[in-house]
Design brief:
Length: about 375
């Protein structure tokens, strides 16, 4: 049975459940699954599950277990999964086999698995006589595995840029004053966001202006202790910066030009930074600037980074946007107005001089946080 409205509802549900484990499963995808029995033309959910933690049970098997636990028989049921069931033995046995053994009749997935190691679930299921189809009706279910799909296809981590702005789109006054624009609760949510990514990226401008820690504070459960990464082309990092003095406890990576990362003039400084616990890495440059794509690729391949939160000033953000490296924007809009064209905007540069050249985003969700608005956008392909 295929009804777009049912497909969307059930896959939305699977996506919602899977979202609970953001930060716990990466670099695996977030996956949710729902087992449904049809009572005439009405679906009855008899099992729900999701991938909870890296290395543990996959969503489909979790949903089947839930079904059994509740005393239902999954035979003849339809399974809605946000990702095509895997067909490989990794840290877990293949989901396709689990579904075949459970005797389900149909599998609906929001997208195919691009991972060549795990692919082939649909083929295996179909061979066993189980109907399979892809449903693109749930935006949430597809969005769920975007970070995973991007990394598998490009080798780049998922990049989220975050900032707080006034109603008229400014992130600081003309003198650089920015504490605080967004409210208490919004700032708490940023700490939670930091606790769910592998790396927080900032620029030297921000280090010199704010001397930030970039840690997740007052978060009940830090899921991942994000490493702090500074784009510092000229190796200007002061040794007194908090990012350096705390580098023993929390990884700090200072990314400078490949030349300065090996040259004689910076040897003493590099040694002092290393003694403090900071890791200096060299990145190729494009003109005067770091090749940010190369930096991201290096973070993914050498440091296991699958998600990055950019918390920077307009300079670095502008360069990131210009290179089209940002996938998601989390913007806090505070009920405040500066009305000053010299006040700072989120991104510097000149990405699009005309509207037709503007980068396009899709509105994913918006939520009221006390008196602020939290808006999440995704880059449109
Ligand atoms: C699914 N359901 O819930 C997930 C899938 O090392 P493993 O065994 O955990 O396998 C990880 C791979 O399996 C991952 O790269 C992706 O291709 C797929 N993830 N597949 O059927 C799930 N998490
Ligand atoms: Zn699986």
């Amino acid at each position: 049975m295929s009804d777009p409205a049912f497909d969307r509802r059930l896959l939305d549900l699977a996506a919602r459940v899977a979202m609970r484990s953001v930060g716990n499963v990466e670099p695996n995808p977030l996956v949710g699954a729902v087992v449904v029995r049809w009572m005439g033309s009405t679906p009855e959910v008899i099992g729900i599950g999701h991938h909870r933690r890296f290395g543990e049970a996959h969503a489909e098997r979790a949903a089947l277990s839930d079904c059994m636990r509740r005393g239902h028989d999954p035979r003849g049921a339809t399974v809605y999964a946000t990702l095509e069931p895997c067909n490989h033995t990794g840290k877990q046995p293949p989901c396709a086999l689990g579904l075949i053994e459970a005797g389900v009749a149909e599998v609906v997935a929001a997208r195919r698995d691009p991972n060549p190691l795990a692919a082939g679930g649909f083929e295996a299921l179909e061979k066993a006589g189980i109907r399979c189809r892809v449903s693109g009706d749930s935006r949430a279910a597809i969005a769920l595995s975007d970070p995973f799909v991007k990394r598998v296809k490009t080798g780049l981590p998922w990049v989220i840029a975050k900032w707080a702005q006034t109603i008229d789109g400014r992130v600081a006054t003309r003198n650089g004053e920015s504490k605080w624009i967004s409210g208490d609760r919004s700032r708490k949510r940023v700490h939670r966001l930091r606790a769910r990514v592998d790396a927080v990226l900032t620029g030297m401008g921000t280090v010199l202006a704010d001397d930030p820690m970039l840690t997740a504070r007052d978060v009940r459960r830090v899921r991942r202790a994000a490493m702090r990464v500074v784009a510092d082309t000229d190796l200007d990092m002061p040794e007194t910066a908090k990012l350096v003095t705390t580098a023993r406890d929390l990884r700090t990576i200072v990314a400078c030009s490949a030349e300065l990362a090996t040259g004689e003039i910076t040897r003493a400084k590099r040694q002092r930074l290393a003694t403090a616990g900071a890791v200096v890495v060299g990145v190729p440059t494009i003109g005067e600037r770091l090749d940010l794509a190369a930096l991201l690729r290096l973070l993914a391949s050498e440091h296991g980074v699958s998600s990055v939160l950019v918390e920077s000033g307009p300079g670095l953000l502008g360069s990131m946007l210009d290179a089209d490296l940002v996938d998601e924007l989390v913007v806090y809009v505070a009920p405040m107005m500066l009305g000053d064209e010299m006040a700072r905007a989120a991104a510097a540069g000149r990405i699009a001089p005309t509207l037709s050249m503007a980068q396009r985003y899709e509105l994913l969700r918006a939520k009221r946080i006390e008196n602020d608005l939290e808006v999440v956008y995704r880059r449109r392909a």
